[in-house]
Amino acid sequence: MSTPNIDIVVLISGNGTNLQAIIDAITAGKLHANIKAVISNRPGVKGLTRAQAVKIPALTLDHKQFTSREAFDQQLIQEIDRHKPDLVILAGFMRILTDEFVKHYAGRLLNIHPSLLPEFTGLNTHQRALDAGVKQHGVSVHYVNNELDGGPLVLQAVIDVEETDTAESLQQRIHQQEHIIYPMVIEWVAQGRLKVINQQPVLDKQLLETPAKWINNQLVN
Ligand code: GAR
Predict the structure, then answer these.
(1) Residue 90: how many CB atoms within 10 A of its CB?
(2) pLDDT, tens only, 140-184
(3) Domain 1-105: what homologous superfamily?
(4) Where are the domains of the chain?
């Protein structure tokens, strides 16, 4: 049976390489999704151009034009909801979200964060991982709750940290992993394999008490 497409809205703040990976996966027929809109909180970023290049409606909602976080998130909700998305995808969307926003999209809001959460929430994750001397580093896809980079984990790509690694080399290698695992998780939702039941992610009818792992290009759960 063919998989019906789900409708998604992608939120960005910058370069949009994760957005590009999602667009490419759709084009390649590997991801059954329609990107109904891309919304950036920063004007003029490359991610907007990436959307426009493939005729996806691209909108800027500049947070600096709003008097409060609440007012911005309210407007954002309005812009998103006109597309009635099955999923809202945070793809490098560098904003702290209000509780109201998070509650509104409960079970439909995914984020990608460049660390093995709960380690290294926030910024500069690659340098902080190096400074901490960790042997492994990675990237996490998770449903979002109202903590910074918090919420139930779905999938983590794990890489070994090499002695020669710098923050830049780690960032580059992690980015490659991001571009594989984010479209993969969205496709799990499209295929009905990933659901949220009682606020917990369930993959292939199994409660994900710990996240699935993507290691050396293989899924390990
Ligand atoms: C990605 O590395 C993503 O994991 C990170 O922002 C980058 C966006 O890159 N997100 C966070 O740090 C969220 N806390 P992109 O614009 O090229 O997709």
Answers:
(1) 21
(2) 999 998 887 889 999 999 999 999 999 999 999 999 999 999 999
(3) Formyl transferase, N-terminal domain (3.40.50.170)
(4) 1-105, 114-221
pLDDT tens-digit readout, 2-48: 888 999 999 999 999 999 999 999 999 999 999 999 999 999 999 99
pTM exceeds 0.90 for this model = yes
Token duo for residue 13: 């703040």
Instruction: For tokens 């293989």, name the residue.
Output: 218
**How many whole angstroms separate alpha carbon 131 and alpha carbon 102?**
32
Residue nearest to atom 16 of ligand 1 (CA): 16
| For ligand 1, mutation pick of 110, 113, 168 (most atoms within 8 Å of CB) | 113
113 is catalytic: yes
Span 39-92, pLDDT tens digits: 999 999 999 999 999 999 999 999 999 999 999 999 999 999 999 999 999 999
Could you please state the CATH topology (level 3) that the domain comprising 114-221 is classified under.
Answer: Rossmann fold (3.40.50)
- Quote the ligand 1 centre to 91 CA distance (angstroms): 6
In angstroms, rounded to a whole number, what is the distance separating the alpha carbons of residues 3 and 191? Answer: 6
Given 113, 126, 142, 179, which residue is catalytic?
Answer: 113
Reference 181, options 221, 145, 146; nearest CA is 221
